[in-house]
Amino acid sequence: MKSYKDLDVYNLGLELFYLSHSCSLKLPKYEMYELGSQLRRSADSVPTNIVEGYGRKRYKADFIKFLTYSWSSCLETVFHIEKINRLYPDVMPNDLELINRYNELSSKIYNFIKYVEENWKT
């Protein structure tokens, strides 16, 4: 692996960020800076923490810490999508698909954390 761009968790996280971001912009104006902002920030945090952790991969504990932040942000993003779906069902017509994809990403990040814990050589 030559770059964080070679990581499936990074690529999927970035793809889902773009999807989430565009959906958040469909919220009513009064939610753009509240719930919309929370969704955008948590969705952005998923791939961003993977990148930052990869930059510290020489230090196994730091890498794991940032991967854990990414995993937590993934869970947070699902929560925001669920709230948006309940409050504004027309904003995210494919919310279940997006939630399923984030749950898949969450599992992949979790498994990657376990891999790094058990196999990473610094």
TrEMBL record:
InterPro entries: 23S_rRNA-intervening_sequence, 23S_rRNA_IVS_sf. Pfam families: 23S_rRNA_IVP (PF05635). It comes from the Bacteria. This is Four helix bundle protein.
